[in-house]
UniProtKB/TrEMBL annotation, chain A:
Belongs to the binding-protein-dependent transport system permease family. OppBC subfamily. The keyword Metal-binding does not apply. The keyword Cell membrane applies. It is a multi-pass membrane protein. This is Peptide ABC transporter permease. PROSITE patterns: ABC_TM1. Keywords: Cell membrane, Membrane, Transmembrane, Transmembrane helix, Transport. Residues 97-286 form the ABC transmembrane type-1 domain. It is found in: Cell membrane. Gene3D superfamilies: MetI-like (1.10.3720.10). It comes from the Bacteria. It comes from Peribacillus loiseleuriae. GO terms for cellular component: plasma membrane.
Amino acid sequence: MAEIVNNKSPLTRQPAEDTAISPWKEGWRSFKKNKVAVIGLLIVVFFILMALFADLLAPYSYEAQKLANKHLAPSSEHWFGTDEYGRDILSRIIFGARLSLWVGFFSVAGSVIVGLVLGLLAGYYGKWVDMIISRVFDILLAFPSILLAIAIVAVLGPSLRNALIAIAIINVPTFGRLIRSRVLSVKEEEYISAAKAVGMKDGRIIFQHVLPNCLAPIIVQGTLAIASAIIECAALGFLGLGAQPPTPEWGQMLAESRAYILQAPWTVLFPGVAIMLTVLGFNLMGDGLRDALDPRMKN
Amino acid sequence: METGKGQTFMTQPLVQVENLKMHFPIKGGLLGKTVGSVKAVDGISFSIKKGETLGLVGESGCGKSTTGRMILRLLEPSDGTIYFEGKDITKLSTNEMRKTRSEMQMVFQDPFASLNPRHTIGKILEEPLIVHGVKDRRERKQRVQELLEVVGLSSYHASRYPHQFSGGQRQRIGIARALAINPKLIIADEPVSALDVSIQSQVLNLLQDLQKEYGLTYLFIAHDLGVVRHISDRVGVMYLGQLVEISESEDLYRNPLHPYTQALLSAVPIPDVTYKQERVILQGDVPSPVNPPKGCPFHTRCPKAMEQCSNIRPILKELEQGHHVACHLYD
């Protein structure tokens, strides 16, 4: 007791043994404990590496046709068999990973950026700004998303790039609303009042205080959205509105081979499995991130 | 009280509030018409002298925090004027107000909510300096170290995040942030009510030490009368958005005039078993600030209410030297 009285501040005596633990580091810690999520992360990393090193990994060219090798069953020479033009399916899938991930990442990046700006404006300034932005979101959400994507591609013309743009557009309201709702709750926090009391300008408050506290749910939703973007891209490819032949896009590979599903089932099976695995990987990872980053899930 | 005494010359008050009102509109109906208003603060006037501590007490919802926030213009007053060093700050533009904010700072009630969880302590303390134009990075770092030591923390705490601290430590950080830009006035909005009693006194002592050292002026908002007595030179008592009594602290505790103050003080426990306390138990609830009673806001619960109390709103008048009360009993 006397010791405490003598010392003006007993707090200063703590040794500096532990260092700073940022909230992100803590999230990573609890993410690592989640086995299923780590499996998801590994699947995603596997596909990313595959896409990056496609040139080195692929045993054959993805577009070289050899009609003599038409519809060969999986063998040691062609692990996943060949399609109706005699092209190696494994090589096409490896190169296809590039396209799918490219579309997944960039369409989501596009919708996050646009959604972030609109959501921040709507949430932070409220009133008529919020009215206009929210109504635009409502209009976009009123259409079934895949129909809207088809309509956008129909206007822009079918190509992989336009499919990417269409997917980005249909995802904007999801992110915009998510961010808006986060901003609405963060805005009422006392540290925002504190920032205003200190005399900060709106820009600084938004980017230094509001935004960092909105990021966690965006990362979670973003990961899950990459999965659905890959499916949407495959769906557009299947309908002939995405990548055009001979681009080895997974959905388009499915569409080309569906006529031979009975004679050569491997032509359909492997692209399908590739789509499923990537989507599964992103979904598992997203669920794990949600558990790790969402404060409501912590106990 | 030590402070203020011995100053024979007239000094301009640091803050002067006149007829301050805050009416929050209630929107209703299809078209969002204003159907009424919550009269959170309904015409209060007081002043704070340089270097003194004015305590503001009252029940939850009586408008004391709203008053504090209006002085900083975190809330825009519906009516009334606030003079800071003789300058009317209610008319300042957002930009001018932002500069004036370096003169007045706030310590918040909840030390867990008032620090951004994604910033390190160093960054939290550095930000006010950046905003108010301390350009040199080394100078800022040095000031952060200084601030941490002033509030009884250590320089190595700068690299940590808020969740790594206890409530008392966080409140010290909140105080350090308020001090960062050398303000003249600090509005402390229930700074200790979220803390353990043992930590409360540490933080209160810190606030008092800082006041002596830097000549700070405090507006100290609280609902705990014991805490307010400990720290305040003068105390104002609020009820339903109005100031019912304001006086030198000792005077108020020794000789409360308003029936509401008397009831409040009778609820403070006295640590003496032989002392027989006469408690004034108030009946009923605080009326809704949407529809405050006509006349004296307290007449619905006042044990000494008279006929005129329900009709005429009493005005605050000086009964004794420096002791103002708004009550018809003293007409």
